[in-house]
Design a protein that fits this description.
It is a single chain. By secondary structure, the chain is an alpha+beta fold. Helix content is 37%, strand content 20%. A 4-stranded mixed β-sheet has the order 1-2-4-3, sandwiched between helices. The radius of gyration is 13 Å and the shape is globular.
Length: 115
Amino acid sequence: MHDARLVSKADFDRVFADNQRARTEYVVVMARPNPVGYPRLGMVIAKRLLARAVDRNRVKRCVRESFRRVLPELPACDFVVRLIAQPVRGDEARDLSRTFKRAGERASAKWPSAQ
């Protein structure tokens, strides 16, 4: 899972510049096909939405676990999860697995030659 992370600014910028989106009540998932051949995950969890580090870390754990569970079903895309609203505790990952799949399908449909 460690190498399935987006870490460089260039990777994040590439996804932010042109992507396909899917959203839940609390997050937007952006996806774009990547050249590495397997799905990778990046997260943007703003301090202004969750001031306490313990809350931000809980959301990150929930996102990583949802991503890990659907990893075999995802296309080779870079996924960036951006928190857009303060989640209700315990409800952070609701519908997230389905949202990853939906964003990946949209990205694969938009860029079929990237697969």
